[in-house]
Design a protein that fits this description.
The chain is mostly helical. It contains 16 helices and 2 strands. Strand 1 and strand 2 form a beta hairpin.
């Protein structure tokens, strides 16, 4: 018998505002973890996506070439959008799921939970580290390197720790409303500036007009190419945070519409900004891209970007801290009550994440290399592979024994797609990590390359 329509799409009921399968009873004695509306969900999702990743897209296009780079970006957007859809569907089918490790536990038992727990925490800690690195670059640019870079990184970590310690995503939403326009304004300023300037900041001075050397098709080595694709994957790597966001929505049934709105907007922004900056800068594009225009524009763009980068750090520090916090106190009255245990556990989580992130930012102080490593080593395990397994888990038995027919063919097509997603994710993890590690080794080998815990100005990288 062919599966019914409901077998392939989750059926949801109206949410109970006073009880949650993750947080338990919602009372006035503690924080309301279920307080994010549709618009707030869109803004939070877009801020988890548009942040550090957009700053690495032009340099990725320089490696791959304009056409292959855009095609890779679109392919990654399609896969991660489907992954985002599966998060919402799996959450509605399994209301007890709070984060990706809960999904792993349902599908694969304790080994799946342990693996995805470790990957999730590492992924967001590395994200937090890259945010600290980005903020230190911004502070160096705005202040024209007024003090040691390690000190700027410490300042970023301290401020980020304070903001990420806000306990609910509902209250962090107002920060996202500030951060998203700021980061967009910064990249738009640079995009306009590189279009009207004679040449990018790092281009050599020549007689007569300067012509951009942008390439339709690049010719990178395998390691360079796969590392660039990993940069593009990182740009769409806010996907695992969608678990936490949907868990704190007032009505999770609105999730899919919010996610599609987010992904459409993010892809359009990435394509326009990436293409324009690369077209005008060519191989002289900076990474992060905000330094491409140079001079006063560089200072202005980073001044706008700093609030956005700080909000990015707030979110990517808050999410893993909340993950550890919820798992530590789940089933206890301390989870939703303002007790000493509650506050001690929460502050310990945010502080611990921040300290480790600061060490990572200081140890791998090359923006492109760190972003590529995150996208390759941890991106597929967070954004691609588990989502293919989620569909197979929920729908394999429902369609396996169905009669031949249109619906059965649809089931088979999605099975093939789900397996493809798992396979391509595995390839990206292995090959991308190799390419990223090669890039980091090459960076340390170069004369004048960045070093760990360096005081040198890191805002002039190309």
């Amino acid at each position: 018998m062919a599966p019914k329509e409901d077998d392939l799409h989750p059926v949801s009921s109206a949410p109970d505002p006073t009880h949650d399968d993750v947080f338990g009873e919602i009372t006035e004695e503690g924080p309301n973890f279920r307080n994010v509306g549709f618009t707030g969900t869109v803004i939070l999702m877009m801020k988890t996506q548009i942040g550090l990743g957009v700053l690495a897209i032009p340099s990725a296009l320089d490696v791959l070439g304009m056409v292959p780079g855009i095609l890779c970006m679109i392919a990654i957007a399609v896969i991660t959008t489907w992954s985002g859809y599966m998060i919402g569907a799996f959450k509605l089918n399994h209301r007890e799921v709070y984060s990706i490790d809960d999904a792993g536990g349902i599908m694969f038992g304790l080994p799946g939970r342990a693996y995805l727990s470790a990957a999730f925490c590492l992924y967001y800690i590395f994200n937090s580290g890259s945010a600290i690195l980005g903020i230190s670059i911004g502070l160096n640019a705005v202040s024209t390197h007024a003090t040691c870079t390690a000190a700027f990184a410490a300042v970023a970590a301290i401020v980020g720790f304070g903001l990420s310690s806000i306990r609910t995503l509902g209250r962090i939403t107002w920060l996202a409303w500030i951060g998203l326009p700021c980061i967009l304004a910064a990249v738009i300023i640079v995009t306009i500036a590189v279009g009207i300037q004679d040449r990018p900041a790092s281009a050599p001075e020549t007689e007569g007009p300067w012509s951009s050397d942008w390439k339709v098709i690049g010719h990178p080595s395998f390691a360079q190419g796969i590392a660039a694709v990993s940069n593009l994957l990182f740009a769409f790597s806010g996907t695992p945070g969608f678990f936490s966001i949907v868990s704190e929505m007032r009505d999770p049934r609105q999730y899919t519409g919010a996610m599609l709105t987010c992904q459409t907007g993010v892809t359009a922004v990435y394509a326009v900004i990436g293409c324009v900056i690369y077209y005008y800068c060519g191989s002289y594009v900076s990474s992060p891209a905000l330094g491409s225009a140079g001079g006063a524009i560089k200072i202005i763009s980073y001044a706008f970007a700093l609030p956005g980068l700080l909000v990015t750090m707030t979110i990517v520090t808050h999410i893993p801290a909340k993950f550890i916090f919820v798992h530590a106190l789940r089933g206890s009255r301390h989870l939703t009550s303002n007790t000493l245990v509650h506050w001690t556990t929460w502050i310990s989580c945010t502080l611990g994440i921040t300290v480790i992130a600061y060490i990572i930012a200081s140890t791998i102080p090359v923006f492109d290399a760190l972003v590529s490593l995150i996208g390759a080593l941890l991106g597929p395990a967070m954004c691609i592979q588990p989502m293919g397994a989620m569909w197979l888990y929920d729908n394999w038995a429902k369609g396996r024994d169905s009669d031949e027919g249109a619906r059965s063919k649809r089931w088979m097509a999605i099975v093939v797609w789900s397996v493809f997603v798992i396979v391509i994710g595995t390839f990206m993890m292995v090959a991308g990590t190799y390419g990223s590690v090669v890039g980091i080794i090459d960076s340390y080998s170069e004369s004048g390359g960045s070093s760990a815990f360096s005081c040198a100005d890191n805002s002039n990288s190309v």
